[in-house]
Amino acid sequence: MTTASSTESTTEARESASPVLSARDLRVWYGSTRGPVAAVDGVTFDVRPGETLGLVGESGCGKSTLGRGVLGLLPAGAAVDGEVRFAGKNLVGMPAKELQQLRGPELGLIFQEPMTRLNPLMKVSEHFEETLKTHHPELPKDQIRSRALEALRGMGIPASRYESYPHEFSGGMRQRIMIALALVLRPAFVVADEPTTALDVLVEAQIIQILADLRRNFDTALVLITHNLGIVAEACDRVAVMYAGHIVEQGDAREVFANPQHPYTQELLRSTISLGTTGLHFIPGSPPDLAHPPVGCRFHPRCPKAMRVCAEEAPPEVLLPSGSRNTCWLPVPDMTTAEGRLPLEVEEISVADEA
Questions:
Q1: Longest Cα pair distance anywhere in the chain, in angstroms?
Q2: Which one, of 227, 319, 304, lies nearest residue 264 by Cα?
Q3: Three-class SS state of 146
């Protein structure tokens, strides 16, 4: 049984460790007939060994683009700027061949919708053979089989299913196969892009347990992209809340959920459903067009606490006493900003006034 003291010591050791991956001012944009679309706009975060960072936000806020941008898996026409440090190297601008050699053995990706990612004409065995042969061509067939079966057993897939085709599995088992494929090469850093989408709650719980075992047994650093705030509260050490290409709040998951500071985080949490829910809450409107985002804070047209300064100037990143970071103009006691100043002459206005 894990004691509270051992858990605290593990957390302290993790926080003192050097990051496995560090992103600084990362930007990803796409070309369009309406101009550049900045899907990720100046994002900064770290992920340490054995740590899980939950990335949450509404659809269209740039979560999946951020995950793929970190790994260099973007479509033709996308551009990337900033810095992503891994193993002493900057992945941004790295030659494609060198980056491809890192993906798999060092950098992993768990896709959502496994049925669209597994080749229906290939057996499970052939998927593993292709993956392992690409990165370890020296491995004989018996070792490939041994490593593949070890990965599948870790996901609860029996060896008797090794020669089956993807359509012979349930959705939950296909997702486990996708996870096994991502982990068979034992990467140090993994992006899990909504790995529990369209799965029932029992299979969802199993997948979350598998990811927890992964970081505990192999010290893997994980970015978990999801809409499900309950999963983040249960499975993640830290959380980053993303809106319109920006990370608006990030910090310890328990601290952020217990005491959210950014109005967008507050509204997201108010919109979740629990056993105690007596009425439905939603955030009016929708995320902005990233080809022409609003001036100032991008959330201000929908924010119930908007102030005049929010519509005029982009807010600074605020370092809170708890250690969390919040990008908002709302005054917070004892807060400091990157510019070393507080917002002056803020005047509350309503969303209706702003409109």
A1: 71
A2: 304
A3: helix
Report phi then psi at 347, rounded to 5. -130, 120
Question: pLDDT truncated to tens, each residue of the chain (355 aa)?
Answer: 444 444 455 555 556 689 999 999 999 999 988 889 999 999 999 999 999 999 999 999 999 999 999 999 998 889 999 999 999 999 999 998 999 889 989 999 988 776 677 899 999 999 999 999 998 899 999 999 999 999 999 888 999 999 999 999 988 888 889 889 988 988 999 999 988 776 778 878 888 888 888 888 889 999 999 988 988 998 999 999 999 999 999 999 999 999 999 999 999 999 988 777 788 889 999 999 999 999 999 999 999 999 888 999 999 898 888 889 999 998 544 444 444 444 444 444 434 344 4
User: How many Å apart are CA 308 and CA 354, to the nearest integer?
Assistant: 8
∠ CA 293-295-298 to the nearest 5 degrees? 60
Residue ranges per structural domain of the chain: 19-246
Tell me the one-letter amino acid at 91.
L
Q: Kindly report the CATH class assigned to 19-246.
A: alpha beta
What's the distance, CA 267 to chain centroid? 20
